[in-house]
Amino acid sequence: MLLEGVFAAVTTCFYPDGRPYWRKLEANMDRYSLTPMSGMVLLGSTGEAVMLSDEESREVLSVARNATAPEKVLLAGVGRESVIETLRLADYAAELDYDAILVRTPHYYRKQMRNREMLTYYQAVADRSPLPVLLYSVPSCTAYDLPIDVVAELAMHPNIVGMKDSSGNVERIAELVKATRSTKKRTVTVTTVFAAVTSRMLTPKTAQQEGGATFVAAGQLISGATALAEAPPRPPLKTRTKEVGFQLLCGSAQTLYPSLEAGATGGVLALATFAPQACCEVYTAWAEKDPVLAAEKQERIARAGIEIAGKMGIPGVKYALDVNGYYGGRPRMPLLPLTGDEQRVVDELMQDIRN
User: Fold this and answer.
1) Any catalytic annotation for residue 327?
2) DSSP states of 107-127 as a string?
């Protein structure tokens, strides 16, 4: 699976009383499908995954998958504290045709999470997972930073294809790139313009799933009979292949450009949930080898990344979603909405990155 570009760290939508608001998640995913982002990540830290029941987690994955355009890469956050529970959710993501799983570090028993335990955890998951595995280190939430030497060893596993690093440390990104540079190259399928080919692009759909009408001959409309429309077959997808190494995604918008310069292949960003175009402009300028424009676009989003996504966290991101025309709503308690003063700060920061 090709993991390049900008990915939104999708939020989970709730009614004011805390019940999941599935229609709003559908609407957000449908709108993300129209953006230039490479894909979306469900059930990450921005998705309040730890606030959800197992049943709700499965419903998030199902709702999001059915509302997303097939050409967008979908990553499922399935990390649990045990191997067996992580694999159960990974199996479900595979049933829904997700493209890869994102597995955060187990951390509740962090004092016992030595290198040996962490290696065993990820190797056991990768051995059994039906989907490619991305490591996920998010020390701001887990108080644990996946050691670079552990990452280097795990990168040798044939089913561990990359990592999201949310340390916000560009020097660490560069060290991770260096440590995984010798990883055996993988051959991935891409489109003719070198975009990712997702499993859903290769999966036949019914007419109802396609959302379009299908021609039914008059001769089939016999009195008293029911005519069943069948979707015409999709034209064959033209593809080519590309060689990729261990793919590293950064987790902070304020360090996107320098992380790309350090060797990252893209970013999974909370900021991209409410300002996808602004984030994609940084990546596009970098990909087109325009450092002046890339630096300018990076500066445009840096303060919002630091203040909204970094300091205010999920309440800030959800308010910014509302400001920019998406559905944010309230976080789940004990997280609380922003105060009036905090909302005014977000309003000011959003002035230059409105859609």
Assistant:
1) no
2) -TTGGG--HHHHHHHHHHHHH
